[in-house]
Amino acid sequence: MKQLKAGIIGLGVGEQHMAGYQSHPGCQVIALCDLSEEKLKEARKKYPRIRLTDNPDDILNDPEINVVSVASYDNYHYPQIIQAIKNNKHVFVEKPLCLYEEEARHIYSLLRSRVDLKLSSNLILRKCPRFIYLKKLIENGKLGGIFYVEGDYNYGRLNKITHGWRGKLDFYSVVYGGGIHIIDLLLWLTGQKIIEVTAYGNNISSSGFFKYNDMVVSILRFENGIVGKLAVNMGCVSPHFHSLSVYGTKGTFVNGLECGLYFESRDADRQPEKIYEDYPGVHKGALIYDFIDGIINKSTGAIPYQEVFDAMSVCFAIEKAAGEKNKVKVEYIQEVNK
Ligand SMILES: NC(=O)c1ccc[n+]([C@@H]2O[C@H](COP(=O)([O-])OP(=O)(O)OC[C@H]3O[C@@H](n4cnc5c(N)ncnc54)[C@H](O)[C@@H]3O)[C@@H](O)[C@H]2O)c1
């Protein structure tokens, strides 16, 4: 099997990518990068055989490296992705892909000219066992025709935006940072495109500490008539949780703190099925095995890049709608003739 060599930029969540790469026999992590001397010191102890650097160029320009994990702060994703692609590297990027629509369009056009390269993003809820179970319920017709979906990204860690790097960036979007996970789930579960959105937001929870919306709620219109609601709620006084409800003509799924519920009846005396599949129950490196396998075996692998752009396209529309307080059509970043 061809041995791919990977490098990781950013050792926060990026450190968890290590386990993903190492789980595949066809891949080896050979270099790690972080701007922080403290992070590098810790890494030196944990990974004495792996090359360490505080300069991302040492990874992005290294011809020996075939795959790069971009897990730096959001504002660095775009330039690092571009540099990686131009230097013939496959890219596994943390969400969000980038911060601006024109950046996404640039990345897309470069990828179109490099069909030999793969890009995917860590939209990790697709690996959550409870949501995989839900996907199977839908595919097996157990919910019937879906007509309404709603999901909340309840962050429950307000300090991340009021006191960490997120609040210091020139621009930060909670929709791109958190809402994208739910948007991707809704697109994946329904198999339908969202064509139009409205949105409102505020920053009452983080007032004085964070200049962007920390709360955004959006109404979604799908191409086949499904309606949906997304809420991204960074200020909630409750633990981190992805609330998700899917309403179909034959059944309803509701994600709960203790278990998921699957209702097959409107009769209050009929107990719903309790779904104890793990939630979130997923390691942050869990998509990487498929990503590497996709490169080696030329299979679909992890989330195809078009689906990453689809989720980003919806996020761009929601952010725009929240800014304009108006409805916005989703402009999908895709091949023109699609
Ligand atoms: N998929 C998920 O569920 C998930 C979860 C958390 C974070 N993230 C994403 O991961 C990225 C990092 O967030 P985090 O929570 O790990 O932050 P973090 O602060 O915990 O860690 C980020 C690390 O990256 C380093 N870094 C930042 N920019 C760098 C650069 N240009 N070059 C080298 N090192 C750099 C920092 O020094 C820091 O050590 C963000 O884009 C975030 O949105 C994704």
Total DSSP E strands: 15
Q: Which regions are unreliable across 5 or more consecutive residues at pLDDT < 50?
A: none
Order of helices and strands: EHEHEHEHEHEHEHHEEEEEEEHHE
Largest sheet: 9 strands, mixed
What would you call the structural class? alpha/beta
The first-to-last residue Cα distance is 35 Å
Ligands in the model, by name, code or SMILES, are: nicotinamide-adenine-dinucleotide
The number of helices is 10
Number of domains: 2
Strand numbers in spatial order across the main sheet: 14-13-12-11-7-10-9-8-15
Fill in the CATH topology of the largest domain: Dihydrodipicolinate Reductase, domain 2
Task: Provide a quick synopsis of the model.
The chain has 338 residues and is α/β, with parallel strands linked by helices. It contains 10 helices and 15 strands.
Question: What do you see in this structure?
Answer:
The chain has 338 residues and is of the alpha/beta class. It folds into two domains: 4-117, 3-Layer(aba) Sandwich (Rossmann fold), CATH 3.40.50.720; 125-282 and 315-329, Dihydrodipicolinate Reductase, domain 2 (2-Layer Sandwich), CATH 3.30.360. It contains ten helices and 15 strands. The protein has helices at residues 17-22, 37-46, 57-60, 74-86, 101-112, 129-139, 159-162, 174-190, 288-297, 305-324, and strands at residues 4-9, 27-33, 51-53, 67-70, 90-93, 119-121, 146-154, 194-202, 215-222, 227-233, 241-248, 252-255, 260-263, 273-275, 328-329. Strands 14-13-12-11-7-10-9-8-15 form a nine-stranded mixed sheet. A six-stranded parallel sheet has the order 3-2-1-4-5-6, sandwiched between helices. Helix 8 (174-190) crosses helix 10 (305-324). It is globular, with a radius of gyration of 20 Å. The two termini are 35 Å apart. The relative contact order is 0.16. The mean pLDDT is 96. It binds nicotinamide-adenine-dinucleotide (NAD). Nicotinamide-adenine-dinucleotide binds next to helix 4.
